[in-house]
Inverse folding.
């Protein structure tokens, strides 16, 4: 009789705990629901840029990869700028909290001959060099990306950087997520 009593008591405790556990899961779901909507709010001010083109010739002759290899490397890569938490992400390898700096071409490249080279190459891919543009870089110099680069230029709704001597351009398929 004692054994039956212990068996019934153990079963009762077991099923009570299981019922409580299911209740806790429901409560956890209720608690987690608002946080997922917060994540969506963060995504509402995100700009995404897709790989667009590579300059026909290198600006600097340091290339180790061919133009075709570079195109294949960046095809399918996306750059994401989150305006809420000020993060910049290029592909999966590079993510940092960014600082945006407005500069003139002379303050960025320091020489008129260098400016002329960039102006000419940008014109070949349909981009005009403005009097001032933004540069995205890491807010923390100790947390920067070496690959593909540590600085990204923003001109005419396009993100531009140098890789293996070539101009790499992201932006023709710009997607902007806004609060609807």
């Amino acid at each position: 009789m004692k054994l039956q009593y212990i068996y019934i008591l153990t079963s009762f405790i077991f099923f009570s705990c299981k019922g409580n556990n299911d209740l806790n899961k429901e409560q956890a779901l209720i608690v987690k629901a608002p946080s997922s909507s917060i994540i969506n709010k963060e995504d509402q001010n995100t700009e995404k840029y897709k790989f667009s083109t590579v300059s026909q010739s290198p600006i600097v002759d340091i290339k180790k990869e061919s133009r075709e290899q570079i195109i294949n490397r960046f095809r399918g890569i996306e750059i994401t700028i989150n305006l809420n938490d000020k993060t910049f992400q290029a592909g999966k390898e590079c993510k940092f909290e960014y600082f945006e700096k407005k500069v003139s071409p002379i303050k960025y490249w320091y020489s008129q001959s260098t400016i002329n080279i960039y102006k000419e190459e940008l014109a070949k891919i349909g981009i005009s060099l403005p009097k001032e543009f933004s540069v995205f870089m890491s807010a923390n110099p100790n947390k920067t990306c070496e690959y593909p680069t540590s600085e990204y230029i923003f001109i005419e709704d396009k993100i531009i950087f140098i890789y293996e001597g070539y101009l790499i351009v992201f932006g023709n398929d710009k997607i902007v997520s806004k609060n609807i």
